[in-house]
Design goal:
The structure holds three protein chains of three kinds.
Chain A (H helix, E strand, L loop, with lengths): L4 E8 L6 E6 L2 E6 L13 E5 L2 E5 L2 H32 L1
Antiparallel strand pairs in A: 1-2, 1-4, 2-3, 4-5
Chain B lengths: L9 H14 L6 E7 H9 L10 E8 L7 H11 L4 E5 L13 H6 L3 E4 L3 H10 L4 E8 L4 H14 L4 E7 L2 H10 L7 E4 L2 H6 L5 H5 L5 E3 L4 H16 L5 E3 L11 H10 E3 L2 E4 L3 E4 L3 E3 L8 H4 L15 H6 L30 H9 L3 H8 L2
Parallel strand pairs in B: 1-2, 1-7, 3-4, 3-5, 5-6, 7-8, 8-9
Antiparallel strand pairs in B: 10-13, 11-12
Chain C lengths: L33 H26 L19 H15 L2 H4 L5 E3 L2 E8 L5 E2 L2 E2 H15 L3 E12 L4 H18 L2 E10 L7 E10 L16 E4 L5 H9 L5 E2 L10 H11 L20 E6 L4 H13 L2 E5 L7 H10 L12 E5 L4 H9 L8 E7 L6 E4 L5 E3 L13
Parallel strand pairs in C: 5-6, 11-14
Antiparallel strand pairs in C: 1-2, 2-7, 3-4, 5-7, 8-12, 8-13, 10-12, 11-13, 14-15
The chains are: A alpha+beta, B alpha/beta, C alpha+beta.
Amino acid sequence: MCLGIPGEIVEILSDHPDLAMVDVCGVKRAINIGLLEGQLVVPGDWILIHVGFAMSKIDEVEARAALDFLESIGQAYEDEIAALRESTIGEG
Amino acid sequence: MRFVDEYRDAEKARTLAARIAALCEPGRDYKFMEVCGGHTHTIYKHGLEDYLPEAVTLVHGPGCPVCVIPMGRVDDAIHIAEQPDVIMTSFGDMMRVPGGNGSFLDAKARGADIRMVYSPLDALKIARKNPGRRVVFMAIGFETTAPSTAMTVLRAEAEGIGNFSVFCNHVTIIPAIKAILDSPDLRLDGFIGPGHVSTVIGCRPYGFVARAYGRPLVVAGFEPLDVLHTVYRILVQLSEGRSEVENQYARVVPWDGNPKALRVIGQVMELRPYFEWRGLGFISQSALRLTERYAAFDAERIFRIPGGRVADPKACQCGEVLKGVLKPWECKVFGTACTPETPIGTCMVSSEGACAAYYDFGRFSRERVKEATRR
Amino acid sequence: MSDGRDGTGRGGDHGVREMDPPRSPGVEPQAADPKDLRNMRERERDRERQVLDRIERVRRRGARVREDRVTLAHGAGGKATHTLIEAVFLESFRNPMLELLEDGAVADGLAFTTDAFVVTPLFFPGGDIGDLAVNGTVNDLAMCGARPRYLSAGFILEEGFPVADLRRVAASMAEAARAAGVWIVTGDTKVVERGKADGCYVTTSGIGTLDRPVRLSAASARPGDAVIVSGPIGEHGITVMLARGELDIEADLRSDTAPLNTLVDALLDACGGGTDGTGTGTGSGGNGGGAVRCLRDATRGGVATVVNEIAEASRVAVILDEDAVPVRPAVRGACELLGIDPLYVACEGRMVAVVAGDSADAALAALRSHPLGSEAAIIGRINDDPPGLVLLRTSFGGTRIVDLLVGDPLPRIC
């Protein structure tokens, strides 16, 4: 029941209230965006889909920040290891 | 797939794994509970435990809404399904959950019209197409799914679809977490917090976990990197002597939740005084039902359900597994009398159930598996 | 109100009650000494290992059908189907040929097979029930290493079924038979009342000649062998699922239904199979000079089911590499939306081939040189341990089991 999938809005359907066409890897499905009332939703936005409804807009800035953090600890980790190696060599 | 593949990156996983190992105090074991069934599924599906040091154990919690449905409610649903002209609709997971007298699949084999749907809107569509039949939607799930059910009821009302109703079994997450924290037998160090429930209720409701119970709770996404990142953040808190609520899943979860979703739940549903959870007993203020105003869409009012309480089979230890007190393989009937093909309890049926996840994905000695799959 | 909605007024005086105390001994206390911790973990691992051994013993016990009635799960191609076949049909018909449970029976230089088709809807992008009916049986014969020759076709038609649709199905079958080089030489037609057949059901049986002295079998896989799939998986099952129109999902997908006999010829020409001693690769085990151990078309239950059958029959482990399994983006997207694993989704024109390790490259080249195998890929290898299990190395770098399917996520797709 926790199954939520990110999808991209490709079209707001004008003839149906609350419906948008969403694309997941080339597969299109009409999704109800009624729960996003009050938020601006346009083609190109990414949303989280759950049982046929959009639950939330995906915040691309936050998404990038999370990945950047993970990359940074990777780099920081490597720097630390390098520093450690150098200091051991220095002592040796 | 965007927003999915990036969070399955093995290299970042290795870095995080090293960081996690470094944060573990020597001689100390850590137990973190992942509340959501979806997290249990992710952990096993991607083999996440391979990245965790021995000191860290992940304990599976009661956040599997299929798993906590008592057998009596399954019987009630089947009773409704067997009424004349009824089309019962349900998510796939419910089809094999055993009640006192078999599952939906068994009832279907006996002649009941039970159909699998992927959305409550699909059920509404079936109601539109079959005006002579009474279509019932088996509504299950935590606060994640409740707004969708509520929106569907509102749509049915707006369109005047009179042959559609909902058998409401929505439950709420906070009482479940509180029940876990109050359980005398479980020592947990932190929580991998519910992901999609939080898109609705936000992160504030978990405050009591950090303040009153002193445990960190980090709201987590569902990709494997999200879960690993969350474990890392919990360990950072512990190493710094903090206990706070954090939001690892900020790309999807707004701190204040979804106001519209909360409004529609409030409009269409209300809290039941108490509700029985399989294996956990009765918990007050823990489940939802339709309000009087929406009685015309409430299957419990339309159909007279037996409402019987069916005791779990004596051999079933789902309760302990759901509370995280027992690991799946510690249940006496795990894998022998209770298998995915012949389930005794719900934990073995749902794709988010801890037993099903362990049996389907993790059921092997990790050393032998690592040995066999080494490149 | 004592109508049961609030849990009042029934069976006993259970008022409001918080959680029952747990019945188990619960969690062990925290150990302070690192050595105690290690011992504790070791003891727990031992207990877990004992439980897992017990489970393995239970899984090896004979099949028993516990249900009173047939359910849709029995038709999924997974555990329930296997149990039904073993406990009901094998029990009744028991003979050495049937016990092998291969895709076809082989005797006297001939291969013989049968298949029934109940797909709904009858017509879908990429084909129809007629295509499936011919290609399905042609493929089962090809998987035995036989040259498909003659088919029979039995029709069960529902009263009211449009003759125009029947003509379409027959035309598809004729075209598919031409493409595969087979003749439909005998058949039968029955009509049942409205409501009793959902349009049209077709059964085809087929005879093929074993022109090559090959011996292909699911029991012939050996450690070191490579597991190859002939192309992207899951297209048929998802196409049919979407064609039902219940899901409002649009995708640019077509069924992959196709006759695989010429593809098999290309592979066996290059690598040899079983005891014929031709082709490259020495391999190991009792199959003489041929490098191809086994061929299976991945229909109901998908690739996962096929490799599980091979792991079980050969008592070997199959280790799959998730990154190596070809899946079209649209199939992946649809599977994510529906919560289905592509490994379990049916194909109708893809096969899994197990070949000797040192012939893997030659096999791949042979498959890729044929239009139906242009996207063939090596997706895994055979190991000796753990026997009977299929393991997956996930894209994430972890490992997990790929078990036989339980239940039926996609009913009536072939």
